[in-house]
Every structure is written in structure tokens, then in C-alpha cells.
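User:
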Amino acid sequence: LQKYMAKRAKRLSQHKVRYRVRKTLANARPRVKGRFVKTEQPLTAAAVEASKTDQPQ
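Assistant: Predicted structure:
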């Protein structure tokens, strides 16, 4: 059981970026709530949310 726990800890602690190019491109892309979106989509998503809050239900 100790061997398993040691191997598991080693696997989980080694989080590193393998491809630096992918990381830089991902950081440059626009996001809404952590998800990637297209450039037109944030405007429409914000407009839809605003219209939902304006209408009484």
C-alpha cells in the first residue's frame, strides 16, 4: 500500500507543460468563465445574459 501511495503522489505532483507553444496560444485566446470562446461569442453571450436579467419572470 505504501508503494502505491508513493507512486500516486509522484504521478500527481509532476504537472508541467509539455508544449510551450500550446500554452502560449491558449493564454492568448479569449475566455468566458474559463472556457474558450470565439471573438463574436462574448458579445452575444453578454447580450443574452443582460436580456435575461432585464425580463421579469
